[in-house]
Structure formats: structure tokens, C-alpha cells
Amino acid sequence: MGIKEDADLFRIRSQWKMDKMLCQCGKAISDVVYPCPTEGTIIGQEDYEVLCRTFVEQTNSFFDAVQQSQRAEWLDEHFGNEYPQKTKNGDVVPDIFNLHMAPRSLCIADCKNCGRLWIQTSPGKNEYRSFLPDNTGYSRVLALKGNTAADE
Ligand SMILES: [Zn+2]
User: Fold this and answer.
1) From the CA of 121, how far away is ligand 1's center (Å)?
2) Is pLDDT at 6 greater than 50 in this prediction?
């Protein structure tokens, strides 16, 4: 994995971005902004269980490495030698999460025009399957539900 710039989090998250596609209804779905209210990620319960366990194990492993002065080696081993060593410990945690989330989850996009949901067929694959709701129209399935981080 090649990570060079300060936008590391974005680059790791962007592995599951869909970029742009044409919906069956004729409108383009694109995600030029991040976070995007018409784009999301879905994960099944089985993968979620594995993700949670792996995330906790890897986070503990990272902080053990920090305590044992093996931080640089740990980062090289898990993120590659281009990962910025200056990244704060707390900022490494979401990178660990995203590293293990990406191969266990699928992109999902919501068409603002027809309400059709587009779900990636498998992690990392640029192929989507569409699902048209019985009641068509945009219903903000993926739009923000909780408070923004600034509100919490
Ligand atoms: Zn559509």
C-alpha cells in the first residue's frame, strides 16, 4: 500500500469509493465530495464480528508496539514503509479500522433521482448491482442520521 501525503485517512477510505456511474434512470451518480450523503458502506454481521475482533486485536498490538519502542516497525509491517511515521498514535487507530473494514465491506450508492440503491458485488471490484425500491424516489437512505462530529 502506497501512502505518501497527509490525506492518509482519506486515501485509505477512498479504497471503497465508487467515483462515478450512470444510473439506469439516466442520471449520473458521483461522489466528488467526501463525506457524500448518497454514498456509504455496508457490512454483514459475520464480517462485522470479525472486523470488531480484528480491530481490537490490532489496536492492542499497535499500542503494545508503541510501549515496546517497536512503533516504526509495526507501522511498516501493517501499512508499508511509505506510511508517515509522524502520524499521531490516535490517528493511527482509524487507519487500523479502515484497513480491516475495506476488505470486509461493500460500497453502496443512493440515486437522488430514482432512489435506486447500487451495491458493489464484492470488495475492491468496480462492479455494482442495482436495487429499485417499490416506492421510488430519493429517501436519503445514506444521508447523515446522527449528530455531526462537531455536535458531539
Ligand atoms: Zn437513478
Assistant:
1) 18
2) no
